Amino acid sequence: MSKASRRRLSALRILARLTVILLCLGLAALLAFHQQIPDVAGLGLILDNLAPWLGLGILVLLLMTIAVGGRGTYVALLVPTVVWGVLFGPESLPSAAVDGKDTLVVASQNVHQDAVTSARALAGSGAEVITLQELGEGQIDLVTDELKPSHPYYSVSTVGLWSSYPLSNPEPLDLGLGWDRALRADVETGSGPVRVYAVHAASARPTGHDERDTMLASLADYVEKDPSSKVIAAGDFNATSTDRHFAPVAEQLDDVHYSAWGPAMTWPRSPFAMLGIDHVMVRGIAGTSLERIPAGDSDHYALRASVDLADD
């Protein structure tokens, strides 16, 4: 090989290494600042909700780094790796299960055609409070009949809340839309009252998510003004925890941590869950754990949360 050829090869390798380094730094910046990307044509919505999956880019960059070599490229690869680990690593670690005499079990699912099967499965899982969203015509009565022996207390608007414990102060909520998409009620448990919000936020699509954003902001406002010492909100929020419009809710409530490895992805069930848009969230409650249940024929996984109502 001539000296000129070696110089060209060396120049190309240097250019390749610089390209990989810039890609590493660009991915790190995208991971850290995805919520600052303008939401033009739904780009912000897509990046926000797929943010954890951007970590797959680290594997691609690793292969590129191996191909081009260079100490600097390996150092640069550490930058997006560390950023991803800081942002998403903690929620990927399992939490300890909660079980005690003051534990309340809450289950939630966006159901489909067979709400009765979902309700039966959630009741069978030991859930004492069950909230279902997207109930079809005639399904409310069927679910109520199914749950009557174990969950005789209920409140229904466009979402449903069934409880083994008595309910008081039920109130439908429109969350800024002008028609009911949520409700709240006090569950009179043996460990004291708990304010429960059952939520079904409007759909979010790249072509439009204004109604969902309004609902999330309104929910955050309700919770902020709520004087209850213990609050649980459960349902289909149609937003992941990394969505910029989910932030107002996250400032008021804590997501119940998943008890298995990885984040609690709930939608779609087939071929595999990619987004965690369903949540159980709490305030004034320290001990919590979360499970994912494939109930009924819904395209959403159900969530089953155990919350410790004992005072600290």
UniProtKB/TrEMBL annotation:
Keywords: Membrane, Transmembrane, Transmembrane helix. It holds the Pfam family Exo_endo_phos. The chain crosses the membrane at residues 12-33, 53-70. SUPFAM superfamilies: DNase I-like (SSF56219). InterPro entries: Endo/exonu/phosph_ase_sf (IPR036691), Endo/exonuclease/phosphatase (IPR005135). Gene3D superfamilies: Endonuclease/exonuclease/phosphatase. It comes from the Bacteria. Residues 120-300 form the Endonuclease/exonuclease/phosphatase domain. This is Vancomycin resistance protein VanJ.
